[in-house]
Structure formats: C-alpha cells, structure tokens
Amino acid sequence: MSIPSTAEHHTTTHPALAHHFNDLAQQREAGTLGMWTFLVTEVMFFGGAFTGYAYYRWKFPEAFQAASHHLDIVLGTINTVVLICSSLTMVLAVQGAQRGDRKRLVRFLLLTILLALVFLGIKAFEYHHKWVEGHVPGRYFRWDPQHDGAVSPGGAQLFYSFYFTMTGIHAAHMIIGIGVIGVLVWMALRGRFTPESYGAVENTGLYWHFVDIVWIFLFPLLYLIGRH
Amino acid sequence: MTTIPIDEPRIEQHSNYLTNGYSVKSWLLTTDHKRIALLYLITITLFFFLGGAFAVLIRLDLMTPAGDLMRDETYNKMFTMHGIIMVFFFLIPAVPAVLGNFLIPLMIGARDLAFPRINLLSWYVFVIGGLFTLASVASGGVDTGWTFYTPYSSTYANTHVVLAALGVFITGFSSILTGLNFIVTVHTMRAPGMTWFRLPLFVWANYATSLIMILGTPVLAVTIVLVAIERIFGVGIFDPKLGGDPLLFQHLFWFYSHPAVYIMILPSMGVISELVTCFSRKRIFGYGFVAVSSLLIAVYGFLVWGHHMFVSGQSVYAGMIFSFLSFFVAIPSAIKVFNWTATLYKGSISYQTPMLYVFGFIGLFAIGGLTGLFLATLAVDVHVHDTYFIVAHFHYIMVGGVVMGYLGGIHFWWPKITGRMYPEGWAKLAALIIFVGFNLTFFPQFLLGYLGMPRRYHVYPEEFQILNVMSSAGASILGVGYLLPLVYLFWSLRWGPAAGPNPWAAAGLEWQTSSPPPTENFEKIPIVTQEAYAYSEGSGFPVSPEADYKEGGSPVVHS
C-alpha cells in the first residue's frame, strides 16, 4: 500500500512554530484547547470543595451564617474589586500583545501582578485577624456561644475549615498565576511575542479570568450568607 | 490494497527514535512520545513487580488459617500497599501512559502529542508521586486500605497516611496531564483524511479514558487535600466527632474511584478491538457501536459510584437508584463483547500470542462483568459485600481484563516498539500459564466470598483453608507467568529476529512506518484514505512470522 503524503512539512517555518505542528494556526488551536481542558479540570477540583461546602451549609445553616458574619465584608468587597480590575488589566495586556505593542503588554502585565499582590496582602491581613480572634480551625479554635453566636461550634469550625481551604487553594492559584505572568514579562521583554504568536499570553489570560471567576463564587458563598 | 509491504526484514539502519541519541540525558530530557512511553514502561514494570511482591506475601500469609506469617498490623499494611501501588502506579497508567503514549500519534498520523514537554512533565510528576509512596512504604507502610476511608485515615491511623496520600495526589496530576494531552492531540493533530470515524478504536478508547481522567481525577485531588488538612490541622471535615460526615468522603472518593475502574479497563478494551480484527483478518463488526460504547461507558461510569456504598448508610432510595444505574453500564460493555465475538465469526483466526490474550480477556472480562451485575443487585450485595466475592470480581476485571489487554498489546506492538519479534513459543506458553494461574488464583475467591469469608482478614476458619491454598498455589503459577515475558522480552531485544515494518500485515497507520519508527514517526505526514480495519476477507497473514524470519526470508503472505 502506498501512502500519499502531504507536501514537505514546515513549509511555513516560523521561529515560534514547534517542530511537531504543521502551522501556527494548529499550534494556537492546540494551546487554546489545552487551556480550556485544563480549566475543566480546575472546575472539577474546586467543584469537590464546593460540594463539601454545600453539604455542610445544608447541615449547619445557622452556624454557617453566624460564622460568616465574622468575616470582614469591607475587605472582602475591596478584594473583589481589586481582582476584577486585575482581570481588566490582563485583558488590556492581551490586547497589547495582539497589537504587537510590547510596552503596553509589559506595563499591563506588571499592573496585573501588582493588583494580585494587593489582593494577597489584604487576604493575609484577614487571615491574621482570624488567627487573633481564635477562628482558625484546629487545636486553637475558640467559639464562645455568648459572644460569637449561639450555634454549633462544630458547624462554625466547619465553616472556617472551608473558608481557609477554599480561599487558600484560591490564593495558591493566584501565586502560581503571578509566577506565570512574571515569566510572560520576561519573555515579552525578550521580544518573544508577536501579533501572530502570543498564545501564552492569551492562555494565561484565560487562566487568570478563571481564578477571578472562582472568587466571584467564593465571595457571596463565604461573606454574604444571610446578608440579603 | 492487495499488496502488503514485504520489505526485507532487518533492523533499519537509518535513524530511528532509539538511535537518536544514546546518552542518559537524551532519554531523561526527551520530548519524544515514544521514548516517554518507554520511560513509563520501565517505571510501571518496577511498580508492577513491587505490588506483586506484596501480593505474594499476602497469599503466603493466607496459606494457614491462623495467619502465621505476619502480625495483624503488618497484614493490613500488605494489602494497603498492594492496592495503592497496583491501582495508582500500575493499572491506571499501564495502557494509556505506555501504549497510548507510544501509539496515539502514530495511529492518527501525527509527529508527536500536542504537548511533548507536558508529556515529559507528566512522567516526572508520576515518578515524584511514586517516590512519595515508596517513602511511605520504606518508613513503615500505610494500613488504611487503598481507599483511605475516613475517619480512620484522617484521625486514628498511626501510619504515614499523609505521605502516601500525597503520593497519590501528585500522581493524579500525571494522569490529568496525560488525559489533557490525549484529548488535545486527538482534536487537533489528526493527519489529513483521518476523520473521527476513521480513528482506530484504541484511540476512541483512550479518548474516552482521557475524559474520565480530566473530570474525575481533580475530585480525588481535592478530596485528598481535605483529608490531609483534617489530619494535619485536626479539623473535623470528615470526622463525625467534630461535626463532619464520613459518608461525604466516600461520595467524593468513589466519584473518582469508580470511574477510575473505567480508566483502567477502557484502554485495554481498545487494545482488544485492535487485536481481534488483525488476527481475524476481518473488519471490526459494528465500528460505530464499539467507538460510541467507549464514550457511553465513560459517561455512565460517573453515575454509579453509590454502588460502593450500599451498606455504608446512604439512603435506601439512593441505593436503589445507584443499583438501577449500575445495570446500565453493562449495556455498552456487552456491546463491545458481542461486537468482538461477531468479528471473530467467519474470520480467518490465527492463534498468535496477542490473540490468546484476546480470548483470555473476553472470557475473563465476561465473568468479571457478569459478577458485577450480582453486586449491582442490592440484596445480593448486602450478602457478599466486603467478602472475597468482591475481591474476585474486581481482580477478574483488573487482572483478567486490564492486564490481559495490556500484555496482549505489549506483544502485538513489541515489534513496532523495538523492531524485534518476541519468541512466539515462549510467549504462547506464558499466556497459557497466566490464564491457568489467574483462574486458579481468583476463582476459588468467588467461592470463599460466597461462603462468607470477609476480605482484609488474615485469620479465617479452617474450612476455608483448601480454597485459600488453591488460590495461593494459583498465585505462584501466575507469578511464573508474569516473570516469563520479563525474561524473553529482554532476550528479544538482542536476539529476537528483526520484525520489519509490518510483521502482522496489519492495516493500521502505525504499521505503515518503519520499526522502530523514526523520531517524527513518518517520513512525510500521510494522507489517510481508509479506516484502520481495511482487512478484506481472507486477506492473508504471514504464517508464523518467527519461523520465516529465522530463515532470514520475507514473511510469507497467504492470500
């Protein structure tokens, strides 16, 4: 059996084209699909934690509400705004890459990192405050029914277990994102992105928006229980 | 179509993926999917024999009713380590990470997987996860069972649970990355003309497997994170004493771990589909049904996890619904079995080693699958739950199914991977020994379980001894059967006759390139004009390739 073949491969050689792809379009399609597939796994990962949260909130509704009231809604709101702004700066960075505007790309990537650091700083302050209050679950957890609310201390502790687990995993995703964006800045300064080839910027943007969206779910579920 | 390549069989002198660099670095930093497949092959073989060593100790201990060989705690660790290593470090990666990695790009006419560096990363992640698990073995082992049930695992066990769980957690990412890579590769890297319904069924099976990998594994990951948090910080996520619910753990765990069964069996089913057509010289019967049944198994697999919890305290209604849904999985599985047997019908069947494994698979999978229906039946399950009946059932699927498919695939594609033929006589003998040893090991366990011997006990009433001794005797035969391929496959690397590009006269795309394939798989990317099963009736087969090659001649093609 003879096999007819396509023409010589790599007819359009481009410095950004990996050896195993036929052309940049195929390479970009693979990258985008890869990132979306990865985000599906992330949805399932967070989904497991959300399932646990939903179950225990159903089991301990009063305790979850009482414990939620000890979170700082002002700081939470500020952080939500900060994170949404960082998504905007990310979009603007992608736009810069699209236009081949290196200065704009680098500037907005750095701004995104800055906003992410502000978010993490505020988060760290909130964590510290919880530690001082004795609301970190585990051995040092304190729940005074008279002062903190006459609900099941076990339920309240479960709320904080999920609060720290879910915001902690979210923060870990942000730290990873900051690292990736840092690499993008370094690559951008070396002129690695062109209007035909900036898939890494675009896909990091997708990741960043995902991290943002997770927070959009976390904020009401953790901070706004019973505040309607 | 009538001519079959009859090149002079010899080890190709021109550059192939094995001759492309000999340094350690050229292997450890390779991004070639074929080399990464071999790295996986070596790694999982080591884990297989380590997990097997634990099985040997278990079977030795069960020779006497008093469990004379080891203490109770040691026995708990033995079956735990056997389970963790075999499930997470052999069965789950076996077919996809070795054969899938090697074959998918070849079968779809691509130069590599879509993300070669992520592919290499997934192997390193696998090895790191494995090292964590080995560290937990070396530091005294874990005794929770491979299921890590809470609150025992999170609160009471005094062994290195976190270390072992971390190993499983890390390894999970290797699985996720492999699945992601396969999905993107199948979507974006197919050669011109390779339409979805021309894809080899092995690719369909791995695609369905990849869907489970990316949808299920992250849930296991977050579950392990929650267990680790509970254990390290002493919070009560799953501990009823602190307000938590151990049933939630079981739901999350089985949401992954039941579909994980299909991660193991689906790729082996894909192997069987490839083998059964080649050695029947017939087009696969019902291609579309076999392809879609893989996807259906992947989807249904996510809806049946509650059948592991019939006696765990989930509601009766949940039990009834999960029981009902569990029966549905039998439909796509039966579709496959019936289509394979229909493929055999009026085929020109030849009994080469891979085909022996096909027959082994179909028979043993049928027994394993049908006893699965017993277990999906609520009332019967209450009787045999946590007995050796369960142990026998899932070993029929995992050893009788997965390992048979894996070994059949390894033999079938060995000439493609290495360029050498294995010794056919020895291989047939090994396949026979494995089949006999397997049945002697596990069939008595059905009887033991039905008579009421609980699993995970090593002290048992004396009337169970005969069946247990039979099982242990079978295990020793099975052990010999597994060691044989290890020996003769190594032997064939040096002394095996040269295979030539297509010793089976197979129709798949992977046989249209040289053996071993060049680094980028094809001299030129092929244009695909037909499906992978274009065997015309009675289209000939090189009779006894080994004998012909020994004479140094071309394979004789009967047509």
CATH architecture of chain B: Up-down Bundle
Major sheet summary line of chain B: none
Number of helices of chain B: 16
Quaternary state of the chains: heterodimer
Number of self-contained structural domains of chain B: 1
Secondary-structure content class of chain A: mainly alpha
Strand segment count of chain B: 0
Tell me the β content of chain A.
Answer: under 5%
What is the count of β-strands of chain A? 0
Number of discrete helical segments of chain A: 7
Question: Could you explain the architecture of this structure?
Answer:
- Helix content of chain A is 74%, strand content 0%.
- By secondary structure, chain A is mainly alpha-helical.
- Chain A has a single domain (24-223), classed as Cytochrome c oxidase, subunit III, four-helix bundle (Four Helix Bundle (Hemerythrin (Met), subunit A)).
- The longest helix of chain A has 37 residues, at 153-189.
- The termini of chain A are far apart.
- Residues 1-11 of chain A have low confidence and may be disordered.
- Chain B has one domain (24-550): Cytochrome C Oxidase, Chain A, CATH 1.20.210.
- Chain B is globular, with a radius of gyration of 23 Å.
- The two termini of chain B are 12 Å apart.
- The chains are: A mainly alpha (228), B mainly alpha (559).
- Chains A and B meet through helix 1 and helix 6 of A and helix 6, helix 7 and helix 8 of B.
Task: Throw out a few tags for this protein.
A: 228 residues, mainly alpha, Four Helix Bundle (Hemerythrin (Met), subunit A), 7 helices, elongated, B: 559 residues, Cytochrome C Oxidase, Chain A
